[in-house]
Amino acid sequence: MLGHKFRVFSHEPLTLTKKKLRWLILLSSIPLFGMVAAFGIAPNTALEELPVEQVILGLDLPEIHSASHANMTFWRQERIQRGDTIATLLSRLHVSNQEAVKFLRDTRDIKGVHQLAAGKTIHVLTTAAGQLLLLRYFSGGSEQLVIEKSGETFKVSDQPPALETHVQMKSGMINSSLFAAIDSAGVPDSVATQIVDILATEIDFHRDLRKGDRFTVVYDSLYGNGEPARAGRVLAVEFVNQGTPHRALYFQADNGESGYYTPDGKNLRKAFLRSPLEFSRISSGFSSARFHPVLKTWRAHKGIDYAAPTGTRVKAAADGTVAFAGWQGGYGNVVILEHRGSYSTVYGHLSAFAKGLRKGQRVSQGDVIGNVGATGMATGPHLHYEFRFKGVQRDPLKVAMPAANPVLPKHMPAFYEYTKSSMARLDMLRGTSLAFLD
Question: pTM for this one?
């Protein structure tokens, strides 16, 4: 077989030594493109002077036309650095000087172009010659600035960002305060507010927190153009307070009803919130005898005073109707709400009322009805809160609050399926090491 002459890889004959031939045989046994080839050598075959010949084939390449290249467009992006201006960014994005001048002229009155945030990204669509066709800048939230070339001028185009939802998971441990723990864990403020609202009927965040308490939260995070936009809804939360775990799971039934429930379907929402403020401290509790700081006499204090900065939002403790909103003696600016079952609540010393709040208006639990102030007979900014039953003040921290309706039995299979992934995430994070937060 090998006595025949090959024409492989060369125009001129070459002489193969025995050593080179052994290497050739060895290499030929290596699989090529997944196939194994077997080569046999007949006995007594001469191994010397096997001529090989190199064959070179030319491949025809398609012609590149400069005209088609000129019509091509390119997306480019550049991360904004400290001290950047729109002019420096356009230069780094290879926009021609002439186009940059036109863009700066046409957009000189558009604030978003000149209010650039370091770390964000600018996207542009250009031609190969550097002609600017479109600029897109997503600054966060739901705001997206899109400026498009129309004829020879640049105009703002109304293109809201397409937001994608990602699930985020965070855990932390309280070492000094809830504020510090939430900050150190990288939890957005809006998520922290939701945690407090969701568990407000289970935990008194003004009095019950202890060093070593732990929290785990699963929530939606919205992204636009690949960049974080804003936090969304809390899907699940676990808060271990003084060794007792409290879990809340979001669920929306087929009939549209939604809320936060315990793992066995009990509604975490009570008829009344424990506190009408998100974050504050109790400066004066419910008492039958208290020395009044203004009147300088001993008298009953039939409510709870929450110290908080002026302007802090005050929320309706329950669904109800506005019975009064105005000035009333020592209460200053006050809102009185009437609720079902002969209950009413009072919110005094407000600095302002919620816009449009008026007598007879219906409000829902958690609606903002005003802001903390120091109007009336007050020595400093705080909320005076009263909880009344049939016109008689009761201590809201000691009254048993009735719960809202649980998940209906017919919806329980859907509830377990809906919350399965959230429960799994909470279980997974419970086993991880938590950051110790100052």
Answer: 0.53
